[in-house]
Amino acid sequence: MTAGTTMKAKAQPQVPAVPRMPGKIRHALGSATPSIVLVLIILAGWEACVRILQVPAFVVPAPADIAAVLVERQAELFQASLVTGAEILYGFLYSCVVGIAIALLVDRYAWFGRASYPLIVLFQNVPKIALAPLLILWFGYDLLPKIALIVIMAFFPVTLNMLVGLRSADANLVALLRSIGATPNQILRQVKIPASLPALMAGMKVAITLSVIGAIVGEFVGASAGLGYMIQFASSQMETALVFAALVQISVLGVFFYYVIEFIEHRFLGWATH
């Protein structure tokens, strides 16, 4: 290679390497693309139908009008979201405590399971919305009746899934521990509870969606704040765009809580999700 050729090679500008997105982000974007495209198609068709057919806004508002309300009244919607979000969070946490406690008692004490499990299943057939007025009557219009309604609606999937997980523990390992003198409580702590965690997380995902429904139902029956109350008030004023905006806000809130649980599952139970 001559000196001139070497100088030309050195003079060529180096193109900086384009940073690549991490694999997980690319995979997430690729997985979400079909859903995003479908949502955009639905919104475009919705907008076109409303505009072409000239549907009154108080019947079905156009997506553009709903988006405008979401932006213009976001401060009001955000404050309502804080109220509803607190109800969902407290109710969900209490649901998990109650559901886990019942599952542990049913698995640990056979007599308790025989006595209570049929009653728990029977109680699940009672329409929960019928209990909401009674809870308002007993506990007033504050946070407590909403939490009670959420617990009634959401504890059962936690109990059922954790019970399935407890009973799916390795029978050979349980037998081995019994043979070396382990107590039932030691077997429960060291084998059954760790084995039940993946099923418990699945039950918690169901419970968080029921918690959102329970909070809104409770606010429908009796409340002075929250997204459910806003929907009731907006409906009475025929502000349909605000109703849809509150529904969007509720959906975002529910998706947020759901993915928080999924993040916790992948962070601490990654061994069980692969």
From TrEMBL:
One of its GO terms (cellular component) is plasma membrane. It comes from Achromobacter anxifer. This is Riboflavin transport system permease protein RibX. The gene is ribX_2. Keywords: Cell membrane, Membrane, Transmembrane, Transmembrane helix, Transport. It is a multi-pass membrane protein. The chain crosses the membrane at residues 28-46, 88-106, 118-141, 147-166, 206-229, 241-261. Its main location: membrane. One of its GO terms (biological process) is transmembrane transport. Residues 81-265 form the ABC transmembrane type-1 domain. Belongs to the binding-protein-dependent transport system permease family. InterPro entries: MetI-like, MetI-like_sf. It is found in: Cell membrane. It comes from the Bacteria. The lineage of its organism: Bacteria, Pseudomonadati, Pseudomonadota, Betaproteobacteria, Burkholderiales. The keyword Transport applies.
